[in-house]
Specification:
The complex is a heterodimer. By secondary structure, chain A is α+β, with helices and mostly antiparallel strands. Chain A is built from eleven helices and 19 strands. In chain A, the strands form four sheets. Chain A has a seven-stranded antiparallel beta sheet. A seven-stranded antiparallel beta sheet of chain A has the order 12-18-17-16-15-14-13, sandwiched between helices. The longest helix of chain A is centred in the middle third of the chain and has 16 residues. By secondary structure, chain B is of the alpha+beta class. Chain B has a single domain, classed as Roll (Nuclear Transport Factor 2, Chain: A). A six-stranded mixed beta sheet of chain B has the order 2-1-6-5-4-3. Classes of the chains: A alpha+beta, B alpha+beta. Chains A and B meet through β12, α7, α9 and α10 of A and α3, β2, α4 and β7 of B. β12 of chain A pairs parallel with β7 of chain B.
């Protein structure tokens, strides 16, 4: 499978993205091998979710179910969540604590390092049955992912030649993670959102500052985000990761009204909330940036929208469906008032988000309309064509071209 | 629920007392004791804001809601509040006439009399279907 021949790529700057990439079953299958089980770092969980030895979480990387646990020595291990006997899902619950992982089917038990430790009736009964003579439990180990963490974000890779995590993330992404994850975090809760569209359409969406105030009218109306603000996009050296950032209060209301005049019902200066408490930004970083959408290829988005902080894990469910798994957090030293404020601001995001609900619809609108348009292309030119580079403005979708340039490297001719 | 299903969202807000709580919680967070809601309105003003946002700001999938309630149980009285529990199923129908089950779960309500009129003092929706399909716009 080589997408350079499977699909048409008319522009070398990726300003033309073939719609076939979003629906093709064979391409989806190849993505599972080359991307999710390839030399990429996939976000698994936050360290704060497994503070104690024996704590575990079950998650998924592409289609592969994964079990993550904290080992006896305090380090984190991750495995394919599959018993090595006949393939049953090993751990069924979402999270918990255990000293051993025991498969319900035949009770094979593994320790926290994934080593097989016990098989009931290994020696049969009255000298009959059980495992063969040559059988050695020491040879059997859960299929491990290589795990690494950065500032409390846990990543795993199946690839045999994945570059070290720090290099994979790159300086800009690490700096941004340092900023948000500057001290221990506390989990506030989870949300799940099932969107009937391809996982790459969501990656496009989060690399598109241009849509931010045009689709999400709530943003524009209340000045949380407007493309007229100070802000921009920063990518890593392969343009696969992106940071969109902006600062509230840095645009001029009158200029904004003029700028939005041509849009349909997007900017309404007369619209006021009766209880505007969720719009308040309690500045908690040394800069003026009030919005950050940090995308790490292939499956992570880290969000700071004023004081609402979360990770979004992109899960693939076939070419026609994705799940967003949102993990909201605050800081461990937040007082009750700050925690309540963050929970209040959660109204802005998530599946029911006053800002973000539109993304669910937008992704589905594209997916539906391009089903039989395999040889047609998206036009990705807002922000410019040709060179892909960091920009200090927000009317852009250039990071989308960045995503596809890296996707092409992984999925194209080897 | 008729007020939501019949797109009389403003009437729905009027069913609540001034000092009210309306929360939608995922069953997974509720069972784990985690505080994060899918939607939270503390006070009628926030409810008004939600509806105004739906009317004027938000874009969401074109649909009609249809709630079916069952298992309505009066649990008792606590101070002046009637405690009521019920199950709900919520179907959404597209403008092409496709109905799908959007959400199933339970209501945990406190109903109080305000000047002789019954109002919701508290309505907590615990959503079994916490893998929310697409997006959550109109209230449950």
């Amino acid at each position: 499978m080589d997408i350079s021949t499977q699909l048409e790529w008319p522009s070398t700057d990726f300003s033309r993205v073939p719609f076939g990439a979003y629906h093709d079953e064979d391409i989806y299958t190849a993505e599972q091998e080359k991307i999710f089980r390839g030399n990429t770092w996939n976000y698994l969980i936050l360290e704060a979710e497994i503070p104690n030895v024996g704590d575990y979480v079950t998650t998924i990387v592409g289609d592969t179910p994964v079990l993550v646990n904290r080992q006896d020595d305090g380090t984190i291990a991750a495995f394919v969540n599959r018993c090595m006997h006949r393939g049953a899902q090993l751990k069924r619950d979402c999270r918990g604590n255990a000293q051993m992982h025991t498969c319900v089917y035949h009770q094979w038990s593994y320790d926290l390092s994934g080593q097989l430790r016990a098989i009931p009736f290994a020696r049969g009964h009255k000298g009959q049955g059980g495992v063969p003579e040559e059988f050695d439990m020491k040879d059997i180990h859960l299929t491990a992912m290589k795990v690494d963490t950065y500032k409390g974000l846990v990543f795993g890779t199946f690839g045999s030649s994945t570059e070290p995590l720090i290099e994979y993330l790159g300086d800009s992404v690490c700096t941004e993670i340092d900023r948000v994850f500057n001290r221990p975090v506390r989990i506030l809760g989870y949300q799940r959102q099932r969107i009937l569209g391809n996982w790459k359409l969501y990656n496009d969406n989060v690399r598109d500052p241009n849509h931010g105030a045009l689709l999400h009218k709530f943003h524009a109306t209340f000045g949380l985000y407007r493309p007229t603000q100070t802000g921009g996009v920063k990518m890593d050296k392969y343009f696969r990761h992106n940071i969109s950032y902006s600062s509230m209060g840095t645009s001029d209301e009158k200029e904004d009204a003029e700028a939005f005049a041509a849009t349909e019902k997007v900017f309404d200066q007369g619209f006021r909330l009766k209880d505007p408490s969720m719009l308040a930004y309690e500045k908690e970083y040394p800069d003026d940036i009030s919005l950050v959408i940090l995308s790490v290829f292939p499956n992570l988005v880290v969000q700071q929208i004023t004081n609402s902080l979360c990770t979004r894990q992109i899960q693939t469910r076939g070419p026609n469906e994705l799940e967003l798994y949102w993990t909201y957090f605050g800081y461990a030293d937040d007082d009750e008032e700050m925690t309540r404020h963050r929970l209040n601001q959660a109204n802005l995001v998530g599946p029911g988000g006053l800002i973000s609900m539109e993304d669910g619809e937008a992704v589905e609108l594209v997916h539906r309309a391009v089903r039989r348009e395999q040889s047609e292309h998206a036009i990705v030119e807002i922000g410019g064509i040709g060179e892909i580079s960091d920009q200090e403005f927000l009317v852009t979708e250039t990071p989308i071209r960045g995503f596809w340039s890296y996707y092409y490297q992984l999925m194209g001719p080897s | 629920m008729h007020s939501i299903d019949e797109d009389r969202l403003e009437d729905w807000v009027d069913l609540f007392a001034e000092d009210c709580v309306y929360k939608i919680l995922s069953r997974e967070n509720f069972d784990s004791g985690l505080p994060l809601e899918l939607m939270s309105c503390y006070g009628k003003a926030m409810l008004d804001d939600r509806i105004l946002s739906l009317r004027e700001a938000n874009l969401y999938n074109i649909h009609w809601d249809r709630h079916i309630l069952g298992g309505i149980e009066v649990l008792g009285i606590e101070e002046d509040n009637w405690l009521i529990k019920a199950n709900y199923t919520l179907y959404q129908t597209t403008n092409k006439g496709d109905s799908e089950l959007f959400s199933v779960g339970s209501y945990h309500d406190k109903i109080v009399s305000v000047d002789g009129v019954l109002k919701f003092k508290e309505k907590i929706v615990i959503v079994d279907t916490f893998a929310v399909i697409r997006l959550l716009s109109t209230p449950i």
